[in-house]
Amino acid sequence: MDLIDETIAAIAPPDEAAMRDARDHQARLTKPPGSLGVLEEVSIRLAGLAGHCPPPLPVPAAVAVFAADHGVHAQGVTPWPQEVTAQMVANFLAGGAVVNAFAAQVGAEVTVVDVGVAAELDPAPGLLRRKIASGTADLTLGPAMTMDEARRAVAVGIEVARDRVSAGARCLLTGDMGIANTTASAALIAAFTGLPPERVTGRGTGIDDATHARKVEIVAAGLARHGLPAGDGADPLEVLAAVGGLEHAAIAGFVLGAAALRVPVVLDGVIAGAAALVAAALCPDVVGACVAGHRSAEPGHTAAIDALGLRPLVDLELRLGEGTGALLALPLVQGAVRVLHEVATFDSAGVSGKDAGDL
Ligand SMILES: O=C(O)c1ccc[n+]([C@@H]2O[C@H](COP(=O)([O-])O)[C@@H](O)[C@H]2O)c1
Ligand SMILES: Cc1cc2nc[nH]c2cc1C
């Protein structure tokens, strides 16, 4: 068995008994039942993932920003030059990007992973050089990746998840950087959900109506070129190789790796949503490890998290990527679990429950 198969084999469904314990415990805490809304559901899901209640506090946290370039950039789907990918990687490493500010705000470690940046990057502290290829090929002309490249990029993500957890992380967050990657994301989301390109293709970093119309055409052409959506029997890795990016592949692996280790993974925006669809197609139980950090402004992101059955914690019209939406959600996830550890029960605190018979 290779690393991908071994990782998938290690993923199991949520532990129902632990979820029941968490639900019962929530009902005994000194608050009206259900008053923490969606956060109660998060705490119950994380108990199911851990296999016991309370689950470990998701502290410390580590965000991995997977960076890669895209051959479909040549089709004019984004106003930004491709070299911005490498330039932003340098900015992340210098500590000057929004991801750095938000990570500092919530005490998360930042790792940047070059899984497919077109330019050669010099060694730097905080940079993992795991380049599989110097960007993908143009998905409208042929497969974006070979199957071997796709598998090796997924393996990179699995290894990064494993290494961050070995280094002590108890919560993983996805991040991405890749000019043109919202086009590949839209193609993946259309391929996995069956929704038409116009429903899942957004404006990415910001494009005018004419460029958006062209982007929808490019997504449609890419899907047609590869016979997608291919239906239930399709190999998810073939779909990934056909229209995905190297960072999508690595993030799919990162999600699989987190799920195998039963460590929660907070998903960022549309790129993570597309990658999580790949991971869930490979192994539906990965969803038990996933928390949707936020809802991105990209329409395809809502389609992806709906298909995964996930509810976003933060909804601020963000469309940056880098892991920024996941980082903003992190204190919510941590607070949800801390409640199970620290809040007194009605019995222990001597607080009266509702009178029997009251409505
Ligand atoms: O996370 C999101 O939902 C998101 C939405 C729009 C844009 N982005 C970021 O913007 C870049 C891709 O945008 P584009 O327009 O070049 O496809 C890439 O670096 C992403 O991290 C990210
Ligand atoms: C400046 C810039 C920063 C980004 N961060 C993530 N994607 C990005 C795209 C651009 C263009």
From TrEMBL:
<comment type="similarity">
    <text>Belongs to the CobT family.</text>
</comment>
<dbReference type="InterPro" id="IPR003200">
    <property type="entry name" value="Nict_dMeBzImd_PRibTrfase"/>
</dbReference>
<protein>
    <recommendedName>
        <fullName>Nicotinate-nucleotide--dimethylbenzimidazole phosphoribosyltransferase</fullName>
        <ecNumber>2.4.2.21</ecNumber>
    </recommendedName>
</protein>
<dbReference type="Pfam" id="PF02277">
    <property type="entry name" value="DBI_PRT"/>
</dbReference>
<dbReference type="InterPro" id="IPR017846">
    <property type="entry name" value="Nict_dMeBzImd_PRibTrfase_bact"/>
</dbReference>
<keyword id="KW-0169">Cobalamin biosynthesis</keyword>
<keyword id="KW-0808">Transferase</keyword>
<dbReference type="InterPro" id="IPR036087">
    <property type="entry name" value="Nict_dMeBzImd_PRibTrfase_sf"/>
</dbReference>
<comment type="pathway">
    <text>Nucleoside biosynthesis; alpha-ribazole biosynthesis; alpha-ribazole from 5,6-dimethylbenzimidazole: step 1/2.</text>
</comment>
<comment type="function">
    <text>Catalyzes the synthesis of alpha-ribazole-5'-phosphate from nicotinate mononucleotide (NAMN) and 5,6-dimethylbenzimidazole (DMB).</text>
</comment>
<dbReference type="InterPro" id="IPR023195">
    <property type="entry name" value="Nict_dMeBzImd_PRibTrfase_N"/>
</dbReference>
<feature type="active site" description="Proton acceptor">
    <location>
        <position position="322"/>
    </location>
</feature>
<keyword id="KW-0328">Glycosyltransferase</keyword>
